[in-house]
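Thread title: Can someone regenerate the structure for this chain?

I was given the following input by a collaborator and told the matching structure tokens would be attached. They weren't. Posting the sequence so someone can regenerate them.
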Amino acid sequence: MEKLLVSHFQEAVSRMLSGFDHLPAFTPEYDADRISHILFEVAEKMKENYPFHHPLYAGQMLKPPHPVALLSYALAMFINPNNHAIDAGIASSKMEKEAVSAIAAMFGWAGGLGHLTGGGTIANLEALWVSGKIHPDKLIVASEQAHFTHKRICEVLKTGFESVPADMNGAMDIGYLENILKTSHVGTVVVTLGTTGCGKIDPLPEIIELQKAYKFRIHVDAAYGGYFKLVSNLSEKNSLAFDNIGKADSIVVDPHKHGLQPYGCGCILFKDSGVGKYYKHESPYTYFTSNELHLGEISLECSRAGASSVALWATQQYLPLIKGGEFAKNLEKSRKAAMTIFSWIESRDEFITFFEPDLDIIVFSLKGSSSKEISDLNRKMFDICAKSDLHLALLTLPRAIAGKHHDLEWNSDGLTCLRSCLMKPEHEDWAERIITLLQKSVSATVNP
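Best answer:
Regenerated them for you:
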């Protein structure tokens, strides 16, 4: 299959470059043998990585790009377009606008304003920057389980920030949020649909009700979870949260997470296209051959890889963002894998659990008498799993969450747990094999 794809890629490169055959010929000077030697050296060095592409890698939030994305990205790099200006990325700028419109349509938006970014951090930065422009003297609040980037961004923007405690299931505590709204001037509430650590869903419908009384903006950080808007196998409560996502003022989603794209590719969307006025600037040396909207006119970033938009556009042609489609069904497989493995873990006497997965991230732990003992056991099992080529991750749960589920002696700051992101559709077929390796690793951990 790889050889066939490479042959198609070579044909595509020839077809693309034939568009410039009318130009006078020239030959770039480089040493092919030296390049080949260095390329092989790179290949050897890259073997040091964990096998992120393989189903037995079920640790961090890493998902391999789709082949059509990889090849389209590489194809675009022969041109190396820059989507800051149409002049520097004519075709890729058009592709970005189409690809972003498709993502907006997934959330139920037909208009608005949006573009790709270098990743979720920059996308969230732009959302909170606009929020600060609209409410310059008001707080931005987010759950304590939201991504750390929100607090950091507010420090960069010199905007007031406050964390909202999480409930025992890791989602924003709606009662604490209302107390903050009553006592502070809040301009924006960041609602996370898929926290990075535990994959939890904040109560968006309830927050929308509070918005009616307290008149704040809602920014949805769906960098990890946004594409689950398309699936049909979530709980009724979480499905309702995604059904309401279109009521937000701004949304962030990362195509380089569940969107099958290479790093880095984030996306920021605003419901009100009028926020474009905050980006207004002059660049006479950049915007000069087209009266159309240049993407740099609605972005804080300047130079930005047009190859990202080419890869995303191509992937969305191959896998349209529709409910019941192949893309959605593959996400459903990830969710099924998480539920299958979680159900097995929950049935075993050696483990404790804290909450059912909302999406495709599971958090679990071995049993023990104290938080330190349990944390040490979990680290040991993490290492044993890795030696069997099953790669998990670790997560420290705060006592405020873990302590409400289990009565432990607390002699550490938090509880280090095992965490697994079942982000690949292949994880559904590999679930039983993963369970077998977990069982062997438990035995080796508890009975060395």
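The chain has a mean pLDDT of 95.
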